[in-house]
Amino acid sequence: MLPIKKFTDFIEQNRLFNRDDAVLAAVSGGMDSVLMVHLLKAAGYKFGIAHCNFQLRGDESLADQAFCKALANQNNVPFYTINFDTQLHASQNKISIQMAARQLRYDWFEQLRQQHQYNAIALAHHQNDAIETILLNLVRGTGIAGLHGILPQNGLLVRPLLCLTRDEIEKLINDYQTKLKAAQDKEKTLSEANKEAVTKELIAAQTELQGLGKKIEETRAQAAKDISAKQNEMLTPLQKKVREAIFAVAKEKNLSYVFDTAAQESNNLLYTDGSEDITATVKTKLGATATAAKPAGKTK
Q1: How far apart are CA 269 and CA 265, in angstroms?
Q2: Using one digit for the tens of pLDDT, what is the confidence trace for 197-233?
Q3: What's the rounded Cα separation, in Å, for the pair 115 and 198?
Q4: For the structural domain made of 4-176, what CATH number should be given?
């Protein structure tokens, strides 16, 4: 279970932001920032996700970027991302890669905050980060001033995860992933059961349609026979010979055909699907000697 009350109490006690404020969540794709997203969503805060691609880890950087976009879509919140040439910025400003990445991301976060009117920028530092900072400050000899470590709030930068330790975050993420996998497995089982039921319905419907299709084909074939018989009754002896010749040539050439009795009077004997002119071939088969007139038109 997510520690929603502990999370919201820490925010309220440290006055990080109000319930109706809009928060820009800085999300790297690591478990700390991912947990922060889930807590913001579960607690009902209005927020957007910002992700920086520093282009320092090749395909891994692209994978993190795609993951954060999917996370935003999953939670139905705005998503912002940018690709930085971190090495170039470090070289041009003669600073370390770490410092270059820090400058680039904080400058961009502030631009987004102003542009989209967010009230705060949420960072996913936890208690262990704060302790490590204190120890590092002591080593550097910063004195008492360095003992505060990482503060919950620094201007509009807020750190709502300082209420949790790294171990707590890891356990929460592992528990969440376990429950998510169980839910996905259950959904898959239900999906397969539904799929099987739908498949049976489809097979039954297909069988019924096949039976109906067979009946339609039988009816169509019988109708074609009746129409052909009626046409033969209406043909003159010459037209019958022409038709027989067309049938024979079309069969030899593997062509479909259309017999047009009106065309016989002008010796237009092009009765195919339009792919080949068989007029001359048919006339030869009929022993015709008349010059073929221009075809009346192809029938497709």
Answers
A1: 10
A2: 655 665 565 555 555 545 544 554 455 455 556 556 6
A3: 49
A4: 3.40.50.620
